[in-house]
Automatic annotation (TrEMBL):
The lineage of its organism: Bacteria, Pseudomonadati, Pseudomonadota, Betaproteobacteria, Burkholderiales. Residues 1-24 form the signal peptide. It comes from Massilia terrae. This is Secreted protein. Residues 27-50, 100-127 are annotated as: Disordered. Keywords: Signal.
Length: 127
């Protein structure tokens, strides 16, 4: 049951992130990034993910940060809702946060996803 709740929370976080990215893309483009920062980003992308992301304890710390960031984004999105919908939105965000935090250790101990692969359901159905 928790994985379903986590999936719903992840879907909400992705939807909120997509909306934020879409609005940010309207306002920003690569010309807004200082050249030194752009160069540093290119170097980091070439090197790939840091190894620490795949150590269980580090993965747990990263998950906690990501879950907290998703919760903050959800709260900001709730603040934009009408007053009548805001409390239920915040309650949903809080519930998702709690469920995600409770499930974080299981996620951190799971094998890391492979880069460039699709979700397991898509992979299985395509074989």
């Amino acid at each position: 049951m928790r994985s379903i709740t986590f999936a719903r929370g992840a879907a909400l976080a992705c939807a909120l992130l997509a909306a934020n990215i879409a609005s940010a893309q309207e306002r920003l483009n690569d010309s807004d990034v200082p050249p030194a920062v752009a160069q540093k980003q290119k170097q980091e992308i070439r090197h790939g993910d840091p190894a620490r992301w795949y150590k269980p304890q580090s993965r747990l710390q990263n998950l906690h940060k990501e879950i907290g960031a998703a919760y903050d984004e959800a709260k900001r999105a709730c603040a934009q809702e009408s007053k009548s919908e805001r409390s239920s939105c915040l309650a949903d965000a809080r519930s998702t946060y709690r469920n995600d935090m409770a499930n974080a250790r299981n996620l951190a101990n799971a094998p890391p996803p492979q880069m460039g692969t699709s979700s397991s359901s898509e992979t299985k159905s395509g074989q």
